[in-house]
Amino acid sequence: MSHHIYTTKAILIKSTPIGEANRYYLLLTEDLGFIRATAQGVRLEKSKLKGHLQDFCQVKISLVKGKSIWRITSVETLDNTCFLYNDTKLSSIKNIFSLLLRLLHGEEKNEELFFSIQSFLSFLSKNDLSLDFIKNIETITVLRILYHLGYLKDNPDIINFIKDSMFSDEMLLIFNKYKRKAISDINQILKETHL
User: What is the CATH number of domain 5-79?
Assistant: First the structure.
């Protein structure tokens, strides 16, 4: 029996070992939304997938749909950004991915959400940022996540930070003026929705 192969860009949010050689992945994909997938034999030295399936990486991935889970058949690294050398950036990424894991449950395509997370990772990896700017980019990304998932309504004060998926130093500097209100709004939404 032949299976249809789906190829899409993906961000590896989290992985967990299964058995002796397999691994379980949580992925945010451009075309399929949030999915769960496995890679067979990925932890073996001879595995062709091993070097490409690292947490926080952006990849182009091919999958087939099984009865209850996706199976990874091939992968190509698009942006192998290693944040382990910067604890502040790594902490920010873990915070964002932790929020995604709390909010995402089923497979549903959401390109705006995918591009927001992709922009967040790319800007962090390509720029030398102050602690203030890293906190600003994290807060803006949380606002974007809540907006793209329908938790945050249009707010004239912060809508420009949400609608523009790209980041810039100028944007992060201007955001200082709105940060306190944005954090208050985020905390209120998380409290009201019991997230």
Answer: 2.40.50.140
